[in-house]
Request: fold
Amino acid sequence: GERAIRFSEIMRDASTLAAHLRQLGIGQGGRVAVMMDNSPASIVVVHALALAGIVWVPVNIRQRGAGLAYVLEHCSPAAILCDEAFLPVIHEAGANVDRTCLIVTGDMAVTGARSGTLSLRTLLSQPLDFDTALPSGNDLFAIMYTSGTTGRPKGVLVTHAMMRLAGEAVALVTNARAGDILFMWEPLFHIGGAQVLVLPALMDVSLTMVDRFSATRFWQQVRTSGATHVHYLGGVLQILLKQPPSATDREHAVRIFWGGGCKQDIWRQFEDRFGVEIRECYGMTEASSITTLNDSGTIGSVGRPLPWFSVEVCDGAGSTVPAGEKGEIVIRSNRDGAIFKGYYLD
Reply:
């Protein structure tokens, strides 16, 4: 929104929350499931868990029923931290979380909250210092569950080093430079949002964040923020193109739209109408999010591998197929930890 948040504020509250979580008996390697919408509080929560070496398990806020119950039971969290609006959703899902510590944003006047439910706002109002040793790059940062399109969702094991590398990849894809402003609408529970959250710790850029994507408010939000970069996924570009043409279509500071899923037939149309450059990339959570980058402007291409990856298209026997033939994408890395080490409990 319009509220400025500095690292000093984030780390003050993150240190307090990390210390309270430690007092609750959640040590390094413990898991905390987080079901929160984008907000100043959700930013603090992610930093607090990272600081304490507690494993962040981001939960899709649109998840319901059996799918939600599966994730919550599969990761066996020591605590669940959620927005008030999602508390009844969690209970209705039927997950066995009776012995799990519940921490809810807001005050304690939470309808249906069981006895012992804690208030995040109350915890943050009780400052504490956190001075325990920091986690290493090889320690687990998060368990990010896949969409489960071919079966049950799988928990991708993401280390601190992997998340940093994802941020470095964003810097390459966006060609960001000092003073740039990245517009963020994507949810933090997705790698597409989480990877951008670390970028201001790596270089002199700012993020301007909104709670969700809105086609009708999008360009006004972008203009007001002075954003220079926008991330896209799926049909975002098509949605923006369907908005009525306006004399103000080019009245913004955006240089680059970057992401995945730009259709060939709208690539140039979008660039010409809004005066921006499209930068397509390809990747997955299992390989530090981004594997290839198209910085040449070749329409329809996901580009070439980032410096720490190699990519081949192989047949069933593992041999490279001739150019133009279909096969399986095989990714390798010369950088330890760039590719995940497995799925949780798999």
Notes: The longest strand covers residues 140-145. The radius of gyration is 21 Å. The chain has a mean pLDDT of 93. Residues 7-23 form the longest helix (17 residues).
